[in-house]
Amino acid sequence: MSVNAWILLLLFLLVLGALAWPLGHLVARLIDSELPSPLLRLERWCLGRSARETMDWRRYALAILLFNLLGAAGLFTLLLLQGSLPWNPQQLPGLSVDLAFNTAISFMTNTNWQAYAGEASLSYFSQMAGMTVQNFLSAATGGAVAFALIRGLTSQSAKHIGNAWTDIFRVTVYLLLPISILLALFFVQQGSLQNLSAYLSLTPLAAQGSELHQTLSMGPVASQEAIKMLGTNGGGFFNANSAHPFENPTALTNFVQMLAIFLIPAALVLAFGRVAGDRRQGIAVLLAMTLMFVMAVLVVTSAEQAGNPLLTSHGVNMSQSDLLPGGNMEGKESRFGIAATSLFATVTTAASCGAVNGMHDSFTPLGGLIPLLQMQLGEVIFGGVGAGFYGMALFVLLTVFIAGLMIGRTPEYLGKKIESADMKLVALAILVTPALVLCGTAVTLLLPQGLAGIFNPGAHGFSEVLYAFSSAANNNGSAFGGLSANTPYYNVMLAIAMFVGRFGVIVPVLALAGSMGAKRRQPESQGSLPTHGLLFVGLLIGPVLLVGALTFIPSLALGPIVEHLLMLK
After folding, report:
1. Is the pLDDT of residue 511 over 80?
2. 3-state SS class at 328
3. What's the CA gap between 102 and 80, in Å, rounded?
């Protein structure tokens, strides 16, 4: 890695830590209901009687499912009727049934997979009332589930894990909304659009006096950009996403967008330590996430800076100089370069955020492998709002269980015994997404409807399909752009993967929260495994990487690894 890449990475981690620490304190207060009395009265006034009752895990899960299904149904209807709704200056028609279904499920599950170009398909009303609203609510859902699991792990023998409506309200109103407003104002100041104007038709300077025209898309961009990053949603207002200058106008906005993606996931982990009464517990988990993230950045940046040896053999100069960026600049914005683009790609796939400022499809095979693998690991390296924490918590419990078996002692975490029923829930939640990814990819490659969307035959075409199902099942939303996914087959199959990948994890996690919450916390003994030191950090990284390697190495060998070997030949 170059010196500039190292400086950017270190600066990013330092600023992230400085912002996440105080925010973690705020999140902990939200979890423990340590709020000023005016805010508590506001909750009761807005939510009524529903805010006063605590829920067991079954009622909590039912509320979460009902809330999200109603949101998806509303968004589906809105997209179908888009042509008859206001704030549609371009008179864009409603989406097809299969595309509307895919999009509704996508935004409801915090995936934001987009099989369409936003500026050519969606009205301003759809963007604001549909996409932006769901960006808030889907992120709030993940945060609420994380709140419930934290209470389950840290409570003193409680049958209830909180109130779903209250948790969603708190995450939305007290956490997401204020920070999003600040981010939106900052993006507008930096040059992002925020208007309801009709698209502009302009004559380029180079075409003065001719009949050539260029259409510039307008719209309320900054507000959606803020929540798509903060909520780790990732859906782009424009098809080019964060590579578009109206979404990501400067190097500073690029840096802030990366910070916004990781901010709440990092704060949630620190909040967990505060609620548990031992900050070291949260710091240990955050350290494990950070170490894996740094390793991923090193591989991606090094691979992209090394470039493509096939081009070198044809006389292309791939070295870095004052006049040349060096390495593989294909698919990257010259405004950001290799270092910032590689860091952005690693951040957005480490978290469950599909925002991109470059074409992942144009990365080198190893540079594209790491984003793919990070999604396949369950996006637990920071992860999305809530999803990252509860995904990593599953691996924490798995690690403690394995360590307990190795020393012949009943495994326990935070003074609570981990029993066989708990491990069944952990195994179910961990294995549901790999099953979706591998089975979905296999079925797609066997069917003519799936093969029809592959424009790049061979290993890279396989990688594109594998990336699509990895992104959908793990609720990321980014894509290898060479796959034609806007077909009835892909719209339906990926929607199923997104839905099951989201709630096939959430329901077992809530059941686990209920199970752990009902157990009485016992004081630690001399035989208890310390879960706050460097030893545990190393132990935690092991199962995360091992499960990912054992599950996905064969499929990766058929795609990116084969491409890499062919590139070296």
Report:
1. yes
2. coil
3. 12
Are the C-beta atoms of 191 and 245 separated by less than 8 Å?
Answer: yes
Q: How far is CA 304 from CA 307, 341, 424, in A?
A: 5, 10, 41
Looking only at the bridges linking them, the beta strands covering 412-413 and 214-216 are: unpaired
**The model scores a pTM over 0.85:** yes
CA atoms of 28 and 291, how far apart (whole Å) = 24
Place 323 in a pLDDT band, splitting at 50, 70 and 90: low
Structure tokens at 523: 């004081």
User: How many residues does this entry show for the chain?
Assistant: 569
- Helix count and strand count (H, E) for the chain: 22, 4
State the residue for tokens 């070997």. Answer: 565
Distance, in Å, from the CA atom of 111 to the CA atom of 528, rounded to the nearest integer, reads 39
CA angle 351, 352, 353 (to 5 degrees): 90
**How far is Cα of residue 456 from the mean position of the Cα atoms in its chain?**
27
**How open is the CA angle 468-472-473, to the nearest 5 degrees?**
120
Which amino acid, residue 72?
A
**pLDDT for position 322:** 60
Distance CA 44, CA 84 (A): 37
> d(Cα 356, Cα 347) in Å, to the nearest integer?
10
pLDDT confidence bin for 520, thresholds 50/70/90 = confident
Q: Which helix (H) or strand (E) holds 417?
A: strand 416-417
Q: What are phi and psi of 201, to 5 degrees?
A: -110, 115
Predicted confidence (pLDDT) per residue in 390-419, tens digit:
999 999 999 999 888 877 777 889 888 999
Read off the pLDDT of each residue in 505-518 and give the average, rounded to a whole number.
Answer: 94
Distance CA 503, CA 149 (A): 15
Token couple for 455: 């424009």
Of 412, 393, 439, which is closest to residue 286 (Cα–Cα)? 393
Lowest-pLDDT choice from 124-138, 322-336, 476-490, 548-562: 322-336
For residue 342, what are the contacts with CB-CB under 8 A and spacing of at least 6? 5, 297, 300, 301, 304, 367
- Token couple for 255: 């840096």
Mean pLDDT within 58-73: 96
Determine the Cα–Cα distance for residues 454 and 451; give it in Å rounded to an integer: 6
* Choice between 452 and 481, residue whose per-residue pLDDT is larger: 452
483 φ, ψ (degrees, to nearest 5): -95, 130
Q: Are 404 and 529 in contact (CB under 8 A)?
A: yes
Type of residue found at 36: P
Helix locations, 81-172, DSSP H: 97-108, 118-121, 124-125, 133-154, 164-170
Count CB atoms within 10 A of the CB of residue 201.
9
3-state secondary structure (DSSP) of residue 412: strand
Interval 106-117: pLDDT, tens: 999 999 999 999
Residues 474 and 433: beta-carbon distance below 8 Å: yes
The CA-atom distances, in angstroms, between 349 and each of 261, 266, 293, 398 are 10, 15, 10, 23
Three-class SS of residue 113?
Answer: coil
Residues 258, 344: contact at Cβ < 8 Å?
yes
Q: Name every residue whose Cβ is closer than 8 Å to that of residue 146 and which is 6 or more positions away in sequence.
A: 268, 385, 386, 387, 389, 390
Task: List Cβ neighbours of 435 (8 Å cut-off, separation of 6 or more).
Answer: none
